[in-house]
Write a structure and sequence with these properties.
2 domains; 5 strands; alpha/beta; 9 helices; five-stranded parallel beta sheet; Rossmann fold
Length: about 250
């Protein structure tokens, strides 16, 4: 039996890594650290991994294994001409789970996965789905009752800065303020989602199936968010009506 920490570049998995490196989780010996790079992560996440996390691991004689999918999450959506889904969540499967499994299976006969879900979200700590070929899963933060604030304290006590919440820059679970910031600060990336919606709608029309609103973010088209960001930038007044702020994507933070 061996253990693999599914590192996501966010608060929870960073806290877990600190606990492992510092010997606070002796029940998980010889843990290896693996990060599946969707190639669509937030710029801040890449910077944190490069400048903070990897040097920290090296100082303690550890290293971070980085794997990648054959295509990015966005490239897959573009190829199929579909928008992201808050229900299916296939991006996690293709962008995170499968690349890690493909790397681990040939070299490990009995891998166990350590996942950074904290005690504030115990409903997300689900057992492995053997039918899908998932590895046995362990949730130390849930077991020990450590919530997100507790994770931040663990990171700070190790002398590290706390990372931003990780996730793809185009995640369908983005909050309103994140969508507006993307539209304002990274217009080229934002227009890729506008084009994605246009291509998806065209495909559905050609198939005679455009009988609903197939939008990437919430229940409004990307052009709505662009117009709103433009207008609010003019007014220099932002009021966020964030819906469902507690609903996370299914990726590991």
């Amino acid at each position: 039996m061996s253990y693999w920490l599914s590192y996501g570049g966010g608060v929870n998995s960073t806290a877990l890594a600190v606990m492992i490196v510092s010997g606070r989780l002796p029940e998980y010996p010889d843990v290896r650290f693996i990060f599946s790079d969707t190639m669509n992560e937030q710029p801040e996440t890449y910077l944190y991994i490069e400048k903070v996390f990897v040097p920290y691991l090296r100082e303690h004689g550890r290293n971070l294994i980085i794997v990648k999918p054959k295509e990015t999450v966005l490239e897959r959506w573009q190829r199929y001409k579909v928008t992201g889904s808050r229900q299916l969540r296939t991006c996690t499967d293709h962008g995170k789970i499968r690349p890690m499994q493909a790397y681990i299976r040939p070299i490990d006969d009995d891998p166990h996965q350590i996942i950074g879900i904290d005690a504030g979200e115990p409903h997300r700590a689900k057992p492995a789905n053997k039918k899908k070929g998932e590895f046995p899963k362990h949730y130390p933060l849930v077991d020990l009752g450590i919530d997100r604030d507790g994770c931040k304290k663990i990171i700070q006590q190790a002398g590290l800065c706390v990372p931003k919440k990780s996730g793809c820059w185009h995640c369908p679970f983005m909050r309103v303020r994140e969508i507006l910031a993307l539209a304002t600060e990274r217009p080229e990336d934002f227009h890729a989602i506008i084009q994605l919606e246009a291509d998806s709608h065209q495909r559905m029309r050609e198939a005679g199936k455009l009988d609903g609103n197939y939008y990437h973010w919430r229940d409004k088209p990307a052009t709505y968010w662009l117009d709103r960001a433009t207008e609010e930038a003019k007014q220099l007044s932002f009021e966020f009506d964030d819906l469902d702020p507690t609903i996370p994507c299914s990726c590991y933070d």
